[in-house]
Amino acid sequence: MAAAAMCSVVMSLSRINQRLGVLTLNPVHKGAAYSKGVSVRGRRGGPPSSRPRREAGPPRWEKMTPDQDWTAVYPTAAAFKPSAVPLPIRMGYPVERGVPPAKEGNLELIKIPNFLHLTPAAIKKHCEALRLFCTEWPSALDSDAHCEEHFPIQLESRDYVFAGPSLRNPQARVVTLRVKLSSLNLDDHARKKMIKLVGERYCKKSDTLTLTADRCPLRKQNKDYAFYLLTVLYHESWKTEAWEQEKTVEDMEEYSWEDSPSQRNVLDTLLRMRTLGDSADAAVDTDSVRKELLASSEVQEYAASVSRLKNEGESESSVLQYREAVKKVLRL
Amino acid sequence: MLCILYCGKAKAVRGFERGRASVNTGWLQAVNKKEHTSYFRSTMAAAGCVVRSLRLFCRRLQFPQHETRHLRNYWKCGTFALSNSLRQPSLTSAACLHTGKVYCALSPTITVTDEPDVLYQKVEVLVKGHDRAVLDSYEFFTTMAAKELGINISKVEEPKKKIERLTLLKSVHIHKKHRVQYEMRTHYRNFEFLRLTGSTARVFLEYLQRNLPEGVAMEVTKTEIEKVPEHILEPLWNSIPEKEQSSQ
């Protein structure tokens, strides 16, 4: 019986110990956001704990003055704290013809990113510190034309900042090199050969060669590869190979009037007109006559108009010019 | 953290000083003499005042040790601004004792390296987000920061938003006629900055990227300008006449 009594006493003591244990454990969890004053496991509808929950004092914004340093309240990006922001903000859908909910306990205000840490005062302070690390742009390069003149090569690359399963973007390694052929040291033959070598990468309108390098895994490597490509193209275009002698009229980039069917036809026509005119002159040196005809201004005008038609295409002005030239040559 | 421990700033000025040494042979020959001298005068003046200001800054930093100490105290809450530390200059002697020599080692250095600074003709920043209001605020922040740092903003555009919609079945099984539609809206904002040096671009972009809000992505397109490399100025066949003949 004494044992039973002892047992019951021990049991009750252990229960009290348990309760005390629970109570002592509470302060440890005080820092956690989800903790309550009373642990649910230990208490099931029992009396409130002897250690009361601390009363929340007046909100911080009541003590704030209008001329306080806001950068101290929100020095970095932080969630919206209704007690620390002195503004009467309301956000949310007004339920049952009411008003948008107030800022206390408003999840919408907490969810949305706020810029309370980036007020103009804070930005000014940050920039004051950052200005020491910035350098000035050279004053001589104040326009795009000057930049183009001294630094003709443009390298374009991209950086990406985003959140995802991986922080890397495979497009970040691509490097695009743009250069105007007029800024490179190329002669006529080299320029034509370069244009033929690069094909689609050359834009005739803007005279720009665009090389895109993305075959290497690193951006630095792609940049070096682009420069290597440019070097190789440049040197190859200056070389003249043996088979380039076999260049035919179809391979020519632009139309040249010399040694063309048009020249032959015009000279033949004019010669025949002349021989019909000067009836009996048999000892006519055709070569010298041809040269004389070629040198005459009407034939030169005709040559220019034909070249313009062929190179630039048909337009109203070019066709009219051709008409005038033909009339002058045939003396109509 | 960015502020004080930022090192390795390359100065553009130094690079042009180097170019000055090679004036007789280098690319500057073509430049108009008047422009050249005035440009160098301005850069030398700039170099002089930057070096002077750097010296001042170094002196400023070496002398008041408490400033650097304060940075350590604010480190924990991740303070970014230097000037916060200047507000409360007083500190207990115990803290001074602890922090004494460590901060000599950590003393801020702006190193001016000899390598010429990279030049960016254009830096385009495209930000994407789901919320237009957030991008509006970010635009205000970006434009203000650029103005404070003296960066030339050429344009701020708002490309049209893109909506990606998908239609799914509402029910787990059958009920094909009943569907639910979701959409994802992406708003854009495009900033274009002209004529930035490499150091400025690095500092400014890091500042922007550190203050990028949650849920916003950024794409930066940098256009760097460079001189024609030396090995492309003249074809190397000219210097090797035998090779030229053999290739022909």
TrEMBL record, chain A:
The UniProt record lists the Small ribosomal subunit protein mS35 mitochondrial conserved domain at: 153-239
Gene Ontology biological-process annotations: mitochondrial translation
Upper taxonomic classification of the species?
Eukaryota, Metazoa, Chordata, Craniata, Vertebrata
Organism of provenance: Scleropages formosus
* Protein name, as recorded: Mitochondrial ribosomal protein S35
UniProt GO molecular function: structural constituent of ribosome
In this chain, composition skew of type Basic and acidic residues spans 52-66
Query: What are the boundaries of the region Disordered?
Result: 36-66
Q: What are the GO cellular component annotations? A: mitochondrial small ribosomal subunit
